[in-house]
Amino acid sequence: MAPPAVAAGQGGRQPQQQQEGGFGKTITGIIRMAVFWYFASKFFSPKRAPTDPSGAPAPLISNLFQKNQPLDMWVYLSEHEKFNDFGREESLVWHETNIPYASWGAGSTRNLALKYDPSEGLKHNGSLYAHVFFAQSGYSPDPNDPEYQPQAAFGRTYAVVKYLPKSRADKRRSLLGSSPDSIEDPVASKVADDAQNDSEDDGPVEWVSYLKPNITINLVADFTQYSKNGIPPNIAPYLSVDPITGNYYPTVFFNEFWLLRDKLIQMNETVTELVLNLEVGPISMTKWQLFLQIDQSFQIHRSYGSMVDGEGDELKRVFLEGNPYLLGITMAVSLLHSVFDFFAFKNDIQFWNKNKSMEGLSAKSVVVSFISQLIVFLYLLDNDTSWMILGSSGVGCIIEFWKIGKAMHIEIDRTGRIPMLRFRDRDSYAQNKTKEYDDIAMKYLSYVLFLLVAGSSVYSLMYERHKSWYSWILSSLTSCVYMFGFIMMCPQLFINYKLKSVAHMPWRQMTYKFLNTIIDDLFAFVIKMPTLHRLSVFRDDIIFLIYLYQKWAYPVDKKRVNEFGFGGEDDTAVVSAEVDAAAKEEEKKTN
Question: Superkingdom of the source (predicted)?
Answer without folding.
Answer: Eukaryota
